[in-house]
């Protein structure tokens, strides 16, 4: 992974976290489009959505492909 790809991946993860906390389902879907998460990332994001009690985002994250 190049440093540019790594920076993009980190920025995407930060964006996902912010969208989950803000309850922005459409933004979460947009950020996940065409991407896959590793199991650790996916588990963390699902836990974050569970803390915010957002069932719709939890469902979106559970359907996200894993790498």
Explain the overall architecture.
The chain is mainly alpha-helical and 67 residues long. The mean pLDDT is 91. 75% of the residues lie in helices and 0% in strands. The chain contains four helices and no strands. The protein has helices spanning 3-22, 25-32, 39-51, 55-63. The radius of gyration is 11 Å and the shape is globular. Helix 1 packs parallel to helix 3, helix 2 (25-32) runs parallel beside helix 4 (55-63) and helix 3 (39-51) runs antiparallel to helix 4 (55-63).
Radius of gyration (CA) equals 11 Å
Task: List how many beta strands DSSP finds.
Answer: 0
Overall body shape: globular
- Work out the strand percent: under 5%
Order of helices and strands: HHHH
- Class based on secondary structure composition and strand pairing: mainly alpha
Query: What is the terminal separation in angstroms?
Result: 14 Å
Unreliable residue stretches: none
* Biggest sheet overview: none
Average the pLDDT over all residues and give the rounded result.
91
What is the count of DSSP helices, taking H or I runs of 4+ residues?
4
Instruction: Give the helix proportion (percent range).
Output: over 70%
Key structural traits:
mainly alpha, 67 residues, 4 helices, globular, single chain
């Amino acid at each position: 992974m190049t440093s540019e790809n790594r920076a993009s991946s980190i920025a995407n993860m930060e964006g996902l976290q912010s969208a989950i906390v803000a309850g922005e389902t459409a933004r979460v879907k947009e950020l996940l489009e065409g991407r896959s998460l590793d199991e650790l990332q996916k588990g963390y994001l699902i836990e974050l959505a569970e803390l915010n009690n957002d069932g719709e985002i939890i469902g979106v994250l559970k359907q996200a492909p894993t790498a």
